[in-house]
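[step 3/7] inverse_fold.run input=structure_tokens len=370
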């Protein structure tokens, strides 16, 4: 039995990129789609016995119609046109927070040769000699517990494969700091011949026979040094091999110290650094420390705008001068949490609440130091 295991394609992500392609999608959304399609192309060439997508196919609960159409086309190619049995589960990004909303993936249930687990319940099926247990994202910890209890390998099957999405329990390094991410006990994984995991974006082994496939493109700077792609898995004997797909380069430039510099001097330094890395086809991040109000005031806006125009993507972070009494501006964990909270609210029925006020109050709470 030969498997291909991929996950976390996050189709639709990148919609905040300022530049749009002729398709109407942003150029970054197109990158993320391109890497996913490249993975599908390669899997079709490899022609495994089964292909597994371990969750977060979509970046959001409600992907746009265009993104839906692209995803349907690719899974129709894989499963129906090329006859590769394909399994797909909902992850925390594409599972609804309320059952009546339903997952976008439910639409895929009509595709031939595609097995979809997106309704909060484990589905179990046998392909050739192997039993598959596909556990989608669950709405509550209680239902997760009940569903995990049903993940019992079939002693009659030659192999048992488990598919799940979430954080390997007790290993916080695999957390994505998302609200609602679920904890997956390693002892359940250890019962199976292979566990195909989704959620953590850098491919890696978690237990003796459990792996994260990683995402098919980079979704944040923390992934810049890790190759992206999918896993090829042989079950007899267990053999896992990483297959890389092409992605856009991400660069984190050395921090610039702005102390004692005027804005125009600072802009020239940033310009020089950008030329050194040839930023025209890269996602570049640069941090500037020790920025005084004067430096900020004398920053030439047109030079910065021009640099942003020339780069594929440029993220300049200005940090205030160190003030012993002030909190640092850099609060990465909160940065993730406030975004997830706003995204989470979009999925909740807030009929009786003032949504804007709730967001305002929550963000105040999340960003105010204790
Ligand atoms: Mn996830």
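[step 3/7] decode complete -> sequence:
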């Amino acid at each position: 039995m030969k498997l291909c295991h991929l996950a976390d394609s996050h189709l639709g992500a990148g919609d905040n990129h300022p530049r749009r392609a002729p398709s109407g999608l942003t150029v970054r959304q197109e990158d993320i789609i391109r890497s996913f399609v490249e993975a599908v192309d390669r899997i079709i060439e490899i022609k495994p016995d089964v292909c597994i997508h371990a969750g977060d196919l979509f970046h959001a609960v409600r992907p746009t119609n265009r993104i839906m159409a692209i995803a349907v086309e690719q899974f129709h190619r894989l499963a129906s046109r090329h006859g590769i049995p394909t399994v797909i589960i909902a992850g925390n990004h594409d599972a609804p927070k309320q059952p009546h909303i339903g997952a976008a993936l439910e639409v895929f249930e009509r595709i031939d040769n595609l097995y979809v687990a997106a309704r909060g319940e484990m589905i179990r099926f046998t392909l050739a000699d192997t039993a598959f247990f596909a556990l989608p994202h669950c709405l509550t910890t209680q239902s997760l517990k009940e569903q995990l209890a049903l993940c019992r390998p079939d002693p009659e099957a030659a192999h048992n494969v488990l598919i799940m999405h979430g954080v390997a329990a007790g290993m916080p390094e695999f957390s994505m700091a998302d609200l609602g991410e679920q904890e997956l006990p390693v002892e359940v994984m250890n019962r199976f011949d292979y566990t195909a995991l989704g959620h953590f974006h850098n491919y890696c082994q978690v237990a003796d026979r459990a792996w994260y496939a990683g995402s098919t493109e980079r979704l944040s700077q923390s992934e810049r040094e890790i190759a992206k792609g999918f896993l090829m898995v042989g079950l007899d004997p267990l053999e896992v091999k990483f297959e890389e797909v092409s992605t856009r380069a991400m660069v984190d430039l050395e921090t610039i110290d702005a102390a004692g510099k005027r804005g125009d001097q600072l802009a020239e330094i940033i310009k020089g650094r950008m030329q050194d890395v040839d930023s025209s086809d890269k996602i570049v991040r640069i941090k500037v420390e020790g920025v005084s109000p004067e430096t900020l005031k004398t920053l030439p806006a047109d030079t910065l705008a021009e640099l942003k125009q020339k780069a594929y993507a440029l993220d300049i972070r200005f940090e205030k001068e160190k003030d012993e009494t002030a909190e640092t501006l850099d609060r990465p964990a909160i940065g993730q949490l406030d975004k997830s909270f706003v995204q989470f609210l979009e999925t909740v029925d807030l009929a009786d609440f003032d949504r804007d006020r709730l967001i305002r109050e929550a963000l105040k709470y999340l960003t105010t130091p204790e």
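[step 4/7] annotate
Residues 2-244 form a domain with the Purple Acid Phosphatase; chain A, domain 2 fold (CATH 3.60.21.10).
The mean pLDDT is 90.
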